[in-house]
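so my prof wants the structure for this chain in the tokens format not the other one, which i didnt know existed until like an hour ago. anyway here's the sequence
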Amino acid sequence: MTKKILMVLTSHDELGNTGQKTGFWVEEFAAPYYAFIDAGVEVTLATPKGGQAPIDPTSTLADFQTLATKRYDGDEQAQQKIATTLPLSSVNASDFDGVFYPGGHGPLWDLTDNAESISLIENFLNTGKAVAAVCHASAALLNVKQTSGEYVLSNKAVTGFANSEEDAVQLTDVVPFLLEDELIKRGGDYQKAEDWHAFAVQDGLIITGQNPASSALAAEKLLIQIAA
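here's what i got, hopefully its the right format
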């Protein structure tokens, strides 16, 4: 039977009060998306608002292009999927084998406290299904709780965009919070590699990647998990 993965992207496109745009980071969508479909997995895309998922314009610059982003640039079918995402309210965890959250700065604003996203993740975890997130999308896990009422990140190995990486992109004072700090506040065992190096960690059903370079690694871990 064909495995099915839900990918949840941000709907948020304002970079704080800077007047600049943000959204999802192309590489963090493209690398996992192609890993999934090349493995024969059926992929469905959703966002809090549905419709067009905003792309962070910085992620389209020449410096950040990879084989996966170039493939996306020539893939009209994938672009159409990004333009017509389902609203989160219409998706059900029971229809999927796992879920993947690509990053970009957008999720900090609209996926951290999103009740539908939190409920969705709780449903995945409570039914023994893996949840993967990369870079800033680890924020989607911050307010997810276990049935006991404890945060799911409590005593769990976790990673996400490091404070030093946020500092390097000069957005420390723009973002609503520093992800590394918040993951630690939730009781997470925060781990990281050197800035910009590929690093992903799995603890039980929770898979997280540190930065854009880690997106394919996190996707591979999810593929292994749903095949088990």
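also thought this was worth mentioning. Residues 4-227 form a domain with the Rossmann fold fold (CATH 3.40.50.880).
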